[in-house]
Amino acid sequence: MISFIGRRDKGGSATGAGLHELVQGYSIEVMPRTAAKVEDFRTLLPEGTRVYIAHIEGTPIEEMVATAKRLSDEGFPVMPHFPARIIKDKATLEDWIKRYQGEAGVDQALMLAGGVAEPHGDYHSSMQLLETGLFDQHGFKRLHVAGHPEGNKDIDPDGSTKLVDDAMQWKQSFSERTDAEMAVVTQFAFEAQPVLDWIASLRDANVDLPVHVGIAGPAKLQTLIKFAIACGVGPSLKVLQKRAMDVTKLMLPYEPTEVMADFAEARVTGTHAPAQIHFFPLGGIKATANWAMKHGAEPVKAAS
């Protein structure tokens, strides 16, 4: 991995500009319990930042909708998760859609299978949710779907990428036959090149959906390793493991500067760069927002 400092010292101001541009318009993910710790998001996030709300198994829909309403009232576009495997049936799905829309003015959603092994009801994939037609019927304009640059053993237990590749083709086809604004959002990774190679493979397969790359925000190394293992992060986990073996870095907080600089380099050279960055604030929303502002995000406007 090429370090950001090295490129800058060699006169790589273009990479610095690329990083600044890449951080612009980032999105960020929260949960109801983490959002509750923030007094006012307008003091942390740039105006217009898209905020995803992760729906963890066991979280009541009432808490999800209340969080969405609070964020929407503070002026942020909200994108709640719809994890297929925890949605019982079509009636439940429609109820959730109506609540988000009616109580919080939500018109966008992230569809994903969800991190449970056995479905709670009728659905096991995001494609089944899309096939219901309910999001279109209720005026949802933007629909994002999950992407897996490092594979997904829940979907392909044999370690291949056949089923996730087939799913990407289906999602591309869906985007072509509907009016939905679509993009692919990835799990967080700690190494850029495998993700860039994956984006290139999508383009070779005629999948042209924009890719929003997941990035873990600043956090303690032990925290990141715990989340990475729990979330099924693939080969790029070795970047953290290597860092953990260096006693001089073990106690230092991780920051995504190097991996972001590598994505910025790809953006500068025009080689299948991500369209946008999506932050997972594993070390706290404030720490991630402050890092983003330090590296080029729009300044925060004071709340009125």
Layout of secondary structure:
Elements: H1 4-9, H2 13-23, E1 27-30, H3 32-35, E2 51-53, H4 61-73, E3 78-83, H5 90-104, E4 108-112, H6 126-131, H7 134-137, E5 142-147, H8 162-177, E6 181-188, H9 192-204, E7 211-216, H10 221-230, H11 237-244, H12 247-250, H13 257-269, E8 276-280, H14 285-294
Parallel strand pairs: 1-2, 1-8, 2-3, 3-4, 4-5, 5-6, 6-7, 7-8
Helix pairs in contact: 2-13, 4-5, 10-11
Notes on the protein architecture:
- By secondary structure, the protein is of the alpha/beta class.
- It has a single domain (27-253, 277-292), classed as Alpha-Beta Barrel (TIM Barrel).
- It is 44% helix and 14% strand.
- It is built from 14 helices and eight strands.
- The chain has helices at residues 4-9, 13-23, 32-35, 61-73, 90-104, 126-131, 134-137, 162-177, 192-204, 221-230, 237-244, 247-250, 257-269, 285-294; strands at 27-30, 51-53, 78-83, 108-112, 142-147, 181-188, 211-216, 276-280.
- Strands 1-2-3-4-5-6-7-8 form an eight-stranded parallel β-barrel.
- Strand 1, helix 3 and strand 2 form a beta-alpha-beta unit.
- Helix 2 (13-23) packs across helix 13 (257-269) and helix 10 runs antiparallel to helix 11.
- The longest helix has 16 residues, at 162-177.
- It comes from Pseudooceanicola marinus.
- InterPro entries: FAD-linked_oxidoreductase-like.
